[in-house]
Structure formats: C-alpha cells, structure tokens
UniProtKB/TrEMBL annotation:
Residues 102-128 have a biased composition (Polar residues). It is found in: Membrane. Coiled coil: none annotated. This is ABC transporter. It holds the Pfam family ABC2_membrane_7. The keyword Transmembrane helix applies. The keyword DNA-binding does not apply. Signal peptide: none annotated. Residues 7-27, 67-76 have a biased composition (Acidic residues). Keywords: Membrane, Transmembrane, Transmembrane helix, Transport. Residues 32-44 have a biased composition (Basic residues). It comes from the Eukaryota. GO terms for cellular component: membrane.
Amino acid sequence: MTIKEDENNDASEVEETAVTDHDEADDQVLKREKKKNSKKKKSKKNVEDDGAAKPKKKKSKKKHDDVDDDEDSDEDEHPKEKSVKKKKSKKESAFMDIEAQVTASEETGTGKDSTLTIPPAISTTGQIRRSEFDSRQSSMLATSDDPFAIREGKTLLWRNVNMTLKTKDGADRKLLDDVWGEVPEKQTTAIMGPSGAGKTSLLNILAGRAKTRGKVTISSDVRLNNFSVNPTDISVRKHIAFVAQDDSLQVTSTPREAIYFSAKLRLPRNTPEKNLQKLVRRMLTELGLDSCADTYVGGALLKGISGGERKRCSVGVELVVRPAMVFLDEPTSGLDSFSAIQLCQVLKKVANAGSSVLFTIHQPASEIFNAFDRLILMNKGRVMYQGLVEDVPSYFRKRNHPLPKNYNPADWIMNVAQANTMQQLDEDGFFPKDTRNLPEPFAETMEGKDELGITLTEHHLEKDFDARPPGVFMQVRMLFTREIKNITRDTAAVGARFGLTIFLGILIGLIFRNVGKADPSQPQNLNSIFGALLMVLLMSMFGTAQPALLAFPEERPVFLREYSTNHYSVVSYFVARFSMEAVVTGLQILVQLLITFWFIGFQSSFGMLWTTVYALAMSSTALSVLLGCAVEDPKLGQEMLPLLFVPQMLFAGFFVAPDLIPSWLRWARYLCTLTYAIRIALVEEFGDGCPSDDGSDPCLNLLNSIGAEPDDTWWNWLVLVALFATFRLFALVVLQQKATKFF
Ligand SMILES: Nc1ncnc2c1ncn2[C@@H]1O[C@H](COP(=O)(O)OP(=O)(O)OP(=O)(O)O)[C@@H](O)[C@H]1O
Ligand SMILES: [Mg+2]
C-alpha cells in the first residue's frame, strides 16, 4: 500500500463520519494528525528504503512525467544542478506529507488549506535556511543558458483581502470580500470565476498594481515568504514578473529583440552573450514564436504579428529572466487551443523550476484544467473554492454538485457558480472560511530589507558585482539603440516629421524669398525680416515640441511595464530619450534652416542662427516633455498643445509691448523661452543698426521695443539654458513620481 492510498483511506473514513459540530471535528483532526505523524515516520522509512516516494495518485505522476523527462535532460547538462534537484525532490515529498496531513480536515469546512504550507526557504522559527540557495547556485543560475534552470522560489500568502467600492448612493459594494489563498512555489495556481468575479482585481492587488484612487478602498494582509509586504511598494513589485491582459510591447521591436532586451537588461551582467542568445532562441521555440521571431510586434498603425503571438511574446519577455514569481492575467485568451496548451506547458516548466505561477483563466479545455496544480475559484468577490485541482470533483460532489461524466470540470464548476444563487451556494457549503493557522509574520527589520523576501539571492547579487544586472551605461545604450531602430523603422512618423519640415521650410522660404537682403531701414522691409525670423523660430518650436509632447504619453504603457519590472531606471530612460531628442531635433533644425536661410538671405551667421533656433527648440521641447510626463493620455496631451504655444506668443513682446501687459501677469514672460530666443536672434540680425535718412535707427528701435539689448545677449543665453535645465529636471521628477506610483 502506498503512502497516499493509506491517507486517502483515512480521508474517506472522515467523510463517512462527517460531523457538523466543530469541536468534535477538531478532536478528530487532532487524532488523525497524531495517527498520521506516527504513520509518516513509517512512510518516510519506506521512502528511504524504496529510494523514492511513490506519488499520491497515478494521475498526478503522469502529469509530472513530461517535466521529469525534461529535468533528466537538464541534469545531464548541469551536474551541479543535480544535487539541487535532489534537494528539491526531497522537499516535494515533504510537501506532499504536509498536504496529506490536512486531507482529513476538509469536512470541517476548512479545506486542504487549513494547515499553512510553510515556505520551504524559511524554517518555522523564522530563520532563513541559507544553505537552501548558496552563492555557487546563484552564479550558476546567472551563467546558465536554460530558461527553466532551477531558481529560488517564493511563497505568497494572503488573507483578509478586501476591495470596496463607494457607489453613487453612498453604499459600499464589496468587490472582494475577505479573500484568502496562497501561491506556493513550484506550483501553478489558476484563478477562475465568472466575468466580474474579481479575478483581475485580486491579481492586481497581489501584484501591487490595483488602482486605489477614487472611490475604491483596498485592505489586505499579504505575505511573501511570511514577511508582511505591501505589494504596491515598487521594490516588491519588481520581484513579480507580471503579464497584463493588454500587451504593452515596443511596436517596432521584433519578438526576438523584445525578449533579448528583457534578458540583457534583467539578467546578471556576467551572462555571456552566447547564453543570452541561446536563452532567447529557446524561449521563442518554447512559445512557438520561431516563425514570427523577426516580424515587427506592430500595433494599431503598424501591421505586425498576430494578437496571440503578441500575447506569447509578452509572456516570453517575462519568463526569460527566470523570475521567482510569475503573475499572468488571462494568458491564454485569444490563443487557439494548441497554443494555449503550449503556453500552459511552458508555465508548468517554469513552476517546476521553482517559481510560483499565478494566472487568471477563462474556460480552459479539460486538458489545460487538469494540468494546473491549484485552483482559486472566485464568485462575486468571494472564494468559492481554494485548493488542489485534483480535489475539485470530490469537493463539488460533497456539496451536491457532482461532476457529470464526460464533462469538462472547468465548464462544470463555472456552470455551478453561475446557475446557482450565492445564498444557495452558501447553503451547499461552498465559500470556505480561512482557518489557516498562519504564524506571526517576520519582523520587518530582520536582516535589513528582508521583509521583501529578498533573502539570499539578492544579498549575494548585491555583493557580487558580476551577478548584478547591467548598470546605467548599458541601460542607456540599449534604450538608445532601440530608439534608433524605432525611428528608422517607423518610417511613416519620421517621414511625416521631416516631410512637413521640408514643406513648411520651402513655403516660408518662397514667401519670404530674399527678404533678408532688403534694406531694413525701410519700415516695410524691417517688418518682413522680423516676420521671417519669427516664422522660422515658431516653426522650429511647433515642429519639435509637438512630437516630444506626444512621445511619452504614447510610450507610457511600455515604460511603466518595463520600469516596474526592473528593466532600467528612470534616469536611464530619461537620458536615452533626451539624447535621441537632441539628435533628431538638431537634424530637424538643420534641414529647416538649410532651406529657409538661403531662401530668405538672413544677415546673421548660419551657425549662430542654428544655435539660437536649436536652443529654443530644445528648451521648448523640455517644457513639452514636462507636460507630456504629467498627462497620461495622448489625447489629453494633444489638447494641451495650445497651452504650450499661445502664452509664448502672447508674452514674447511682439504682439503687445511688455509694458502694456498687466503688471501682475508680466512675470510670466520670463518663463517663455521664445522671449529670449527672439531677442538673441534679433540682436544677431539687426545688432549693427540700420540708420535711416531721417537720422533715426528703426533696427535699434525694434530691438528696444521688445527689450532686446545687445549687451544682454549673454544673459538671454543663460536664462534659455537655465529654463531648459529646469524644465528637464522637473520632468524627471514628475516621471519618477509617476513611475513609482504606477497609476
Ligand atoms: N477601480 C474600479 N472601480 C470600480 N469598479 C471596479 C474597479 N475595479 C474593479 N471593479 C469592479 O469589480 C468587479 C470585478 O472586476 P474584475 O475586473 O476583477 O473582474 P474579472 O473577474 O477579472 O472579470 P473578467 O473575467 O470579465 O475579466 C467588476 O464588477 C468591476 O466592475
Ligand atoms: Mg479580468
């Protein structure tokens, strides 16, 4: 008789003598546990004698066969991992014993989870078993080219998770009601339930991505390896690989590049290039993306890979870094059944490598359903079932909803959840209460930052320079290279930007043709030259600030996803974007001036005019980047454009003399970059004066009227540069805030 069969018999005995009286039930459970403890000793002896523990059920053995095969081949490759895996299988059998202990307690209404699954990386006394993951293994993982290499797992537990919505009539609506559960390491846990049951809400709360602003309040007790954590904390979020329902990938990257980008920036810096390439190739093959590996991801305006391929690519981007925890929101939605099975197999392999995998799923095929380890069934914000998938049929049968023959269990449980009222289900005994006996969470101050569950891996990585992910320089380099690819591949956007510049340059050039060569002492000519100069400056402002304003809101989802999953720092992103903008803006101004300067025939030097126009463009761009970082929606950004330009023109002093502006508003012109740029350009053009026949000097009069003093040119330069720096700095602060708050 196998250990499990023995225990199953115990469980069925309990079934027969099911009692409603809790005290009686508890007594029975205690007796069983005592009995089992003595049996466990015997069984352990058997296990040692036999050399291997027999699996709980034949079905579950079959389920793991694929994985075992896979691991066998891995062991051939990495002898060092062999010992780790042996440890792992020991842990697994221990895990099974813990599960066996609680089998009998189901009838008490507590379900299998009434006993806490103790995270294996932590002992019950709260001491971290440091031998569990030594530095040798950490460096082995760093240099491994296997996406399914063994990694240190983490166990996430939660209870009392509540999400309440204040409705219009002031009442509270519970979106999540005392939700509890756990995601043990090395297991796949699926969250299922009817639409609106709260699956995404729960997943978002656990991943620290729930929107709390507005009328929604959230409270939760979440523990990572039994350290209390606040999932909204960016440092916690960074440890969770999260695949959202909406894909946010760089439109102009290919799946190969997207996965490589993630691997390069998130894996240790000492990972050899050929290993990175091999990791990426393996990930692409595992996810069935080989045929589209070099096609653009695409988006609304650029045709690229299919929706299902995009989804798998998003999954690959997260899995390639061998995360300890992986959360996915509906990873199989939009996939055909073959791809869905393929994806689930990949998730299974990830779990077998040590990760805890949690995902929401709609209507899985029975093949997929039976491949999960655990299930959390949600219904109207409450936990209808929480436990092992293989226990689902008996759980439903005991509650008078037996699974009909030849019926997909996933469809059946959804049917039960939807066809019955909550009251009916309550009466039938669904919605188990959380009776797990959780130990007190570990103190936050234990070993510095250990409350995050960042135990050994991070400590080692922090000490070992080579095992850390690449630094700022590599981050900027990768981002910059991606930006260049983005610009050169998105030819429509670049074509429109430069095409428009050329067209407007020619138009202005034709209209003001040779105006610069006319005698400025004639008022009419002076006005025309001033108009030409103003047009050139305004054109540069509009032409460069507009794309910069829209760039961030458009790229925001990608930036937030990448930042929150630890691809790069805000500063790296900012520097890379700024460098790219500086280059593109410089080129754009050059093209514009090459056309207009020679057409119009300005008297100032080309170099000087280019520098002035470039400085204006860069400082206006800085202001628009600040606005762009502050708004979340590209449409809102577009609507804010007038806010950027109208005040500039009003306060620059050429439509209305500065003295006529109400004194309480006059200060605003000091913030307008155009004010300073036009002064510098005018001094360059008319600084030498242009005496007329009547003895007056219209050029100097013009300079005086808008406050452009030749002696103050250096001051104007200084302010222009200072404004540029200030706007940029503010933009960086706003971006940093937005990034850490996430929403
Ligand atoms: N921020 C919010 N403000 C108002 N209502 C919310 C908010 N977030 C979630 N809800 C509500 O909570 C309920 C659960 O939403 P959730 O998105 O978690 O459902 P779901 O189970 O993921 O559904 P689906 O299967 O359709 O994706 C829904 O009724 C939804 O309208
Ligand atoms: Mg959802």
